[in-house]
Design brief:
The complex is a heterodimer of chains A (575) and B (153). Chain A has 575 residues and is of the alpha/beta class. Helix content of chain A is 42%, strand content 23%. In chain B, β2 and β3 form a beta hairpin. The chains are: A alpha/beta (575), B alpha+beta (153). The interface between A and B is medium-sized, with 16 and 15 residues. The structure holds flavin mononucleotide. The site of flavin mononucleotide (FMN) has 16 residues of chain B, from α1, β3 and α2.
Chain lengths: 575, 153
Amino acid sequence: MTAAPRVRADRQAEAVVKAARAPLAARALDGLAHGVFVFDDKLRVQLISRPMLGLLGFTREAVPVGHALAAILERSTGFSAAAAVLQLCAQSVGGDGPTQTHRLDLAGGAAVAMRVCRIAPRRWLAEFEPLAAMPPAEAPAAALSGSDPLTGLADRQAVRERLEAALARRPVLGRPQVVSFRLDLDGFKAIGDSLGEPVADALLRAVADRLRSALRFEDIVARVGRDEFLILQESPEHVTPEAIAARLLDLLGRPYILHGNLLNVGANIGHASAPADCSNAEDLLRCADLALRQAKASGRGKSLAFEPAMQARAQARLALEQDLRKALALAQFELHYQPQVSLHTGRLAGFEALLRWRTPDRGLVSPLEFVPICEELGLIKPIGEWVLRAACQEAARWPDGIRVAVNVSAPQFEAPSRLVAAVRTALARSGLPGGRLELEITESVLLQPGLATLEALHAIRDMGVRISMDDFGTGYSSLTQLQSFPFDKIKIDRSFVSGAAGPEGAAIVRAVAALGASLGMAITAEGVETGEQLDRIRADGCTEVQGYFFGRPVPSHDIDGLIAALALRREPAEA
Amino acid sequence: MAGGTHARTHRIVYCSRNALRGSHDAIEAEIRQILEKSRANNHRDGITGALLFSSGSFVQVLEGPIAALERTFETIQRDPRHRDVTVLQIAESNRGFPAWSMAFAGNTAGGSCPAAEAAMSAALADPSAASGEQLLSVLRTLVVREDDWALAS
Ligand SMILES: Cc1cc2nc3c(=O)[nH]c(=O)nc-3n(C[C@H](O)[C@H](O)[C@H](O)COP(=O)(O)O)c2cc1C
């Protein structure tokens, strides 16, 4: 801060003084090009002009009248001369000396001339005149750091700084709390995709304004991702964080009309408090984040407070991920085989290879628990290739005519040529004829089949390998999907067999079986557990069955016994 | 100014549930305050329309230039005095209430308008532009002149 060349007390300054005294002073001030504010002898801001708000990095919404100047300056984002301003104002109140002009250097090379003059017995006016290279008046906040150009909210950096300062201050003030709320919108992406980015941007601004309107001036509201927000409350409100979260969820969940479109979005909130949950800035943000993830998992429009158990769950998940990354190298995967029986001949038609994971501390882990995580971690491709090799190797030693079915998941089709190569290698190494291998793919693979996916399927089929559609009826199944590729087989999901799908389920089984017959596809019913189910399935026209009625999945060393037992059994076709 | 015959106008029709608690008198006072504020603001912003209060529900028609409508709608959304807002219609349209900066239908805070209620429950069962239209025509028949609206029974 250095003394600047004196700024003349021109007409503008006179107008300022008049405006500040006038009844509609606030509006009049807005007409002035320079940033001005009026403060009292307690250093409380009584009036503030819009250009001044812009200079301090505030949004249109937040007009901080009646607040302590110190608090306002601290809340400002990207205004780098806060300390000097506060000092000059304090000096004016104390000294009552003649009007002085000071040069303040701001971040980014800009500078302002600040003048303070007394305009009434206990009122002073501070005026800021741009001196050099000021950012354009329309978007002052955007040009400065610490604030999000789209919404005018604080950004991640500003949050971190404020949070660290708040937590450092804590011991002096006794035991106040800092509460952090982490908020994500729900359904936001769909809005951008369908209505375009300008509408999505307008929505983010509206959300930002709603958040600001529902919170106190001293609370920090930041945007920390495309549709992710963070709120910090240093001195908590008199209501619980739960009640605040509920208020925010209610408010954000109300309809929006933007650019002529009616929009609805939801949100989820996770919140955590210091010092109750954690003591440093890093942890507080992480705890709120964990709580948010749990809130999202528990459904739309939910909010959750952080609990230590969440930490434990997140750690358990991390440990699981780490173990999974090592599982292939440690040879912890194994295949179990479940028989598939032909209803025409009553004979064993083949086995489905099912992936299992066995570790010394976890025992045998269900694929439901680990396969989705493998897909998320991108581990499913190498694991899928191992399954192909191991299953072909195993099947090659079975009696002729018994097939092996291997599941191929959607991520494996992201690299179609790699999949084709993996199938070719597995067959070549094991010597298994292509006709004894069957790939089971789920409907999701064909949801939006690319040309490459279909080409890969045809290339695999050209090796003699059969392709079947797995879990038919569970996902986005439609009969038209069956036309996108000439499947050899359809596997009807167990829910239709168990009766869980009700009478309509039975009707679907009959329809699919009839369709399969006319298209020359085999129809396998999964999950057959009882004799009655078997009779019904047979009557409905299915051609193959799989389920506990014929045998549970067994490890490879039990296969020979199972093959012998099934050969001895009274043939179901004659039952 | 409210006529606005040349400029393009839009219309928003929504209904919501009253979130006000308290005596009849208190609720009446609040609604009176909402109306006074609405009339002043809407007159300033070139917005016209009608508000119905019946058996704890609001129905409101807002008409005017889309930008002003969107701003006012956003302000109303944030108002904690009502909740469960269902938008029935948002479309380009001529003004149906050109003479009222906010006409009012509904005689007392606790009273009810059977015709409006029937249209309202139909609209809520099937929130569509058609049911919005229906409500609108009921509102037109109910609306009293801005000067002689009376909240007191
Ligand atoms: C059901 C309902 C309808 C309202 N309608 C209007 C309206 O048409 N125009 C309006 O300006 N405010 C309306 N308000 C009030 C606004 O929510 C808000 O309180 C008001 O616009 C604030 O005005 P001010 O910023 O001038 O104080 C309505 C409120 C409710 C609960």
